């Protein structure tokens, strides 16, 4: 029974990481890159109960919307479901973010249900540099200069204008946007920059404030384990990680390396290696909390509490979370090497990491003591990685300046938009960077990241159902 439980845990923890990251060309993905990528995967796939025909289409976009002298173009991919289309159909666009788009978002779920009610056309746009919408032959730092949210929002604006111009039935159609996580942020910012192109938007789990040292994230992860898993589970995490830190600090690194199954290349006297290790450990817990559904955290806590001591529990838990490699590669140098390898190998997390360095930060650090994941992964780990992977121009000061400029341009916590419905899970680690109840957002109890896109179900909590009904009512108002 114990062996079966370990196998089940391995499958549940590893499946998200495997789906999030194409590792077929790079045999041993360092765990920092692996777990970081897992935290930026797309919204949950929707349950599809029909046989809608979803068409894959392409549109020509300018490489640089803001430089008239640049005549370069690229092909942006989008998915179209026009099964309900009629004269004047409203256009329901789900915005892609830092992931590859897939069919279920336009053939199932609450967005689909609302489109069906209003005989809408469903579209899922793919963000430049993600999925198959890659504008350049490599992802060198020079080529990534065309990757930023302003260009991506201009892509959406041009897309809307082009679709309407090329389809007589949609020439006068109203447009609505939806998005989750980063693409929810795009919904808000699109309404700020192009308010006349859309009548309303739904932003689920939208971070609005760019912040380099995002200490609040791990606080909410800890809170999720405390509220759903209990004090004993929280204590086990906190004590186990503290014990592992102590082993390294007190010249018992060999013992800790063996427990954690670390590869021989790991150097516990190198701060960057230690930071990479403990950042990766915390990210396993973050992945559970960020994507948890009912019963998940309770299950994982039962597993953690099945061990006799704290450190052994943590070591076994994260080993399964890392995907059970022959040995765990947690070295900083391997992470740098991996992101450099990704210049020629797309889909490996490099473009999103570039955006964090260039626009947002959002580095989920150990800077707060009000979390159980220790002290060994400061934001400096991530800012140092920016410089080593992309360019020395990405020093700590420049990255902070970049985040400040993003906040100044888009308004930070005061984006100044109307007709955008913002939702957050109360246990979503991203919610501190977005609007709360005081700003008019809806906070859904016990829910986490992008957890409200499914169709209305009898299993929905009262709060979740009320939120879904509210956006449905707003859509009716916007389309009236």
From TrEMBL:
Protein name, as recorded: Serine protease K12H4.7
Native species: Drosophila suzukii
GO biological process, one term: proteolysis
Entry-linked InterPro entries: AB_hydrolase_fold, Peptidase_S28, Ser_carbopepase_S28_SKS
Annotated signal peptide: 1-20
GO molecular function per UniProt: dipeptidyl-peptidase activity; serine-type exopeptidase activity
Keywords from the UniProt entry: Glycoprotein, Hydrolase, Protease, Signal
Keyword Glycoprotein: yes
One Pfam family matching this protein: Peptidase_S28
Family the UniProt entry places it in: Belongs to the peptidase S28 family.
């Amino acid at each position: 029974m114990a062996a079966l439980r370990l196998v089940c845990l391995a499958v549940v923890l590893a499946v998200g990481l495997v789906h999030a990251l194409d590792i077929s060309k790079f045999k041993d993905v360092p765990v920092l890159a692996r777990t970081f990528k897992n935290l930026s995967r797309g919204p949950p796939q929707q349950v599809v109960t029909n046989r809608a025909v979803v068409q894959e289409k392409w549109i020509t976009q300018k490489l640089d919307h803001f430089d008239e002298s640049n005549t370069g173009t690229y092909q942006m991919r989008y998915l179209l479901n026009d099964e309900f289309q009629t004269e004047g159909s409203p256009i329901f666009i789900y915005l892609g973010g830092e992931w590859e788009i897939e069919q279920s978002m336009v053939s199932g779920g609450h967005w689909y249900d609302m489109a069906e009610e209003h005989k809408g056309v469903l579209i899922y746009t793919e963000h430049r540099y993600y999925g198959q919408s890659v504008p350049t032959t490599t992802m060198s730092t020079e080529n990534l200069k065309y990757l930023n949210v302003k260009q991506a929002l201009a892509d959406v604006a041009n897309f809307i204008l082009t679709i309407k111009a090329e389809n007589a039935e949609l020439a006068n159609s109203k447009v609505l946007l939806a998005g989750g996580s980063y693409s929810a942020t795009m919904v808000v910012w699109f309404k700020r920059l192009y308010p006349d192109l859309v009548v309303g938007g739904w932003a689920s789990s939208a971070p609005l404030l760019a912040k380099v040292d995002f200490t609040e994230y791990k606080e909410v992860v800890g809170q999720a384990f405390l509220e759903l898993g209990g004090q004993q589970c929280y204590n086990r995490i906190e004590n186990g990680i503290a014990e592992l830190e102590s082993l390294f600090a007190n010249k018992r690194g060999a013992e800790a390396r063996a427990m954690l199954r670390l590869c021989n290349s790991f150097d516990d006297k190198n701060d960057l290696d230690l930071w990479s290790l403990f950042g990766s450990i915390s990210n396993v817990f973050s992945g559970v909390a960020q994507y948890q559904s009912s019963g998940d955290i309770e299950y994982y806590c039962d597993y953690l509490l099945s061990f006799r001591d704290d450190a052994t529990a943590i070591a076994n838990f994260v080993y399964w979370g890392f995907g059970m490699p022959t040995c765990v590669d947690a070295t900083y140098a391997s992470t740098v090497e991996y992101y450099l390898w990704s210049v020629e190998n797309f889909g490996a997390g490099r473009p999103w990491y570039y955006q964090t360095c260039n626009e947002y930060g959002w580095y989920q650090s150990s800077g707060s003591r009000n979390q159980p994941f220790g002290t060994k992964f400061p934001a400096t780990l991530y800012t140092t990685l920016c410089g080593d992977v992309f360019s020395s121009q990405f020093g700590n000061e420049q990255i902070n300046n970049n985040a400040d400029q993003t906040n100044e341009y888009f308004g930070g916590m005061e984006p100044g938009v109307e007709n955008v419905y913002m939702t957050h899970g109360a246990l979503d680690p991203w919610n501190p960077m977005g609007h709360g109840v005081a700003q008019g957002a809806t906070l859904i109890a016990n829910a986490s990241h992008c957890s409200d896109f499914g169709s209305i179900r009898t299993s929905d909590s009262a709060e979740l159902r009320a939120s879904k009904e509210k956006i449905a009512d707003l859509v009716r108002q916007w389309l009236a």
